[in-house]
Amino acid sequence: MDPRSAEARTDGVDQFLAAGAPWFLTLFGRDSLWAARMLLPLGTELAAGTLRTLARRQGAVADPATEEQPGKILHEVRRGTQNFTDTFAVPPVYYGTVDATPLWITLLHDAWRWGLAPEQVEHLLPHTESALAWIRDQAAAADDGFLRYVDRTGRGLANQGWKDSGDAIRHRDGRLADPPIALCEVQAYAYEAARGGAALLRAFGRPGADAWEEWAEGLATRFRKRFWVEDAQGPYPAVALDRDGRPVDSVTSGFGHLLGTGLLNQEESAALAARLTGPDLDAGHGLRTLSSDSVGFNPYGYHIGSIWPHDTAIAVHGLVRAGFPDAAAPLAAGLLTASAGFAGRLPELFAGHGAAAGPHPAPTPPPVAPRPGRPLPRSWCCARPWAWTLTSRAARSP
């Protein structure tokens, strides 16, 4: 089956949530998938539209210029090449993301569990198999069996997880990690996708379910052996492995993305739940992206200390799924407090000072942080503050 031929709605239009208002409003694979997943309790139509829109643009060939690969889910779509600087530009259809592909599989699995019609799920199973094959092939290409990324174009994103700024992945002492990089949360996404993909294959009578469950358990074993490190507070998973397989040992909000995926056992989950509620990460208004105890911490830094509402929401989701509602509750309450401080219009990110810092404890955005109703200067790069509903015609080309 042509990987671009996903079935569309009968009226020829699919809905998805576009991120990046006001200047970068477009289809972002990762962001659109997460937003649709969070809204599943309200229905499955948005998830179905998002899945089909991305499936029609699923990678079909190997193209180094766009980082397209067979089975891969794209990062973003634009009307033309976006030239940010002399050394940073992305093509109209850009595949520079390591996490959108497993997240696509997990959204399909979750939408199915929430009641997406079996015939709609079945239409997307060939794309699921292609996405699983991409995960398998990328992990097999690495010496350690982990999903890794590296920008081979020299002009794309240096970091290709959700923390995609150039200084986001760093050691506890402040040194930047050398690529290819294996992010901790991406391994959790891959584990969850393999398990969810296996459930879909088994339910619809397609082969490979047992093999994918075995693959997932092998990944969990490797993760436990290679990622876990220890400091004075006890063991925790490094944010990543660097080019040489060394743990990138900073303490980050990424713990929240691991919880509830099945990758961790109960003891490991309890350790991370305790870490997430510590004052170095929980600022009272949400989770800091980087521990305030780390070298290089900057409460205004894009991914090195600021608070991202969606990141905290993922941690709340993971804590509840892992059986720690008491740890999730204050994080959720902190987001609500932050929202009130912004008159109900949360920005993309805001400063990670802490709720009790200074005479004005209300959260504050960085000077150019985008938020609804606030103009965004053209110099702000890669901004994805809010999701807006757009439609996608059921075309068979990007």
From TrEMBL:
One of its GO terms (biological process) is carbohydrate metabolic process. Residues 360-374 have a biased composition (Pro residues). InterPro entries: 6-hairpin_glycosidase_sf (IPR008928), 6hp_glycosidase-like_sf (IPR012341), MGH1-like_GH (IPR054491). Pfam families: MGH1-like_GH (PF22422). Residues 354-374 are annotated as: Disordered. Residues 160-337 form the Mannosylglycerate hydrolase MGH1-like glycoside hydrolase domain. This is Mannosylglycerate hydrolase MGH1-like glycoside hydrolase domain-containing protein. It comes from Streptomyces violaceusniger. The lineage of its organism: Bacteria, Bacillati, Actinomycetota, Actinomycetes, Kitasatosporales.
